[in-house]
Amino acid sequence: METRRKWLATAVAAEAAAASVTILAQLPLHALLLAGPMLAAQRLSARTAAALGAAALALTLLGSPPASAHELASVLNIAAVSAWAVVTAHSRVRAERALDDMTRLAVTAQEALAPPLPDRVGHVDLAVHARPADGHARIGGDVHDAVLTAAGPRLLLADVKGHGVQAMRVAAAVLAAFRRTAATEPDPVRLAHALDEHLGPELGPEDFVTLLLVDFHPGEAHIVNCGHPPPLRTGRRLQLLSPPRPSPPLGLRPAPCLQRVHLTPGQRLLLYTDGLTDARDADRAPFPLDAPQCQAALAAPAPHDALRSLTDLLHRHTGGAPLTDDLTLLLAQPAPVPAARVHDASPRSADRSSTA
């Protein structure tokens, strides 16, 4: 609102200045009167542009009608430009309203696909940072969620190829399928196959979804990775937990396997999408996820503070430049489980691997 007032003041001042020059100098400066409606066309309403155009015409005709062909041409020119200003302002306002509606729709859709998670699910403390790629009404394809199963907390992080309405539709299908089956399917490998089967009708021949499932059990995590960037485990050193046998993403005949990783008290898992690793600095260098600064950031006392420190590092790395891909960060820290509660709640799977 304040910006519009400034533009209105500028347009009126331009009109008044042009009128003063014309009247005081007695010069045929009709073209100066075009400044008002032309400025209005860029930032103000069609009604304001029409009023300034009418004022320009009135000032042009002030005193006496046009006495020559040149003066008549000036009047017609002001009338034509004023009409153009009204049409342009009207079209611009309609486009701005449509963009506002699309932006609100995008925000609503993005919030549905990236719901706020509680600070704790079961015995796991969580912190989430989700931000779509910069741009007007850009709808991303990142999906995250958390559920509490009979065996313990289960996390989902998925990244749908592309952006826009198609990516949003597939992302919604991922979230719906996960919520239907995550709490009742004990085996994360079978869950990954089930999600792939559910998504089949939604995916085109070139569509795919990278997927990360993490189940937390006392002292360890069970990970299923289908084409997703590997999670990062904190500790004395940062360690990328690459799967022992890489699997294609969902939609491309995935072959998931179960990866078991040990978690000592205080260790955290960072799940992220490629918006983090694809961020570039001025020299086109990727974000150094294994740098000592990242280890220091992720060691902050509270998970939310750790993510805030990490995003600050990312901002400095990119120099504040807009991100070209959606970014989702999910930091999980299991709380110590009392010895009386430690039991083997792990699902049985025929394909296991262990990472110390």
TrEMBL record:
Swiss-Prot/TrEMBL keywords: Hydrolase
Presence of keyword Hydrolase: yes
Entry keyword annotation includes Mitochondrion: no
Domain named PPM-type phosphatase: residues: 123-334
MF-aspect GO terms: phosphatase activity
Superkingdom as given in the UniProt entry: Bacteria
Region: Disordered, residue numbers: 337-356
Biased composition annotated in UniProt, kind: Basic and acidic residues: 341-356
Gene3D superfamilies reported for this sequence: PPM-type phosphatase domain (3.60.40.10)
Protein name: Serine/threonine-protein phosphatase
Originating organism: Streptomyces spectabilis
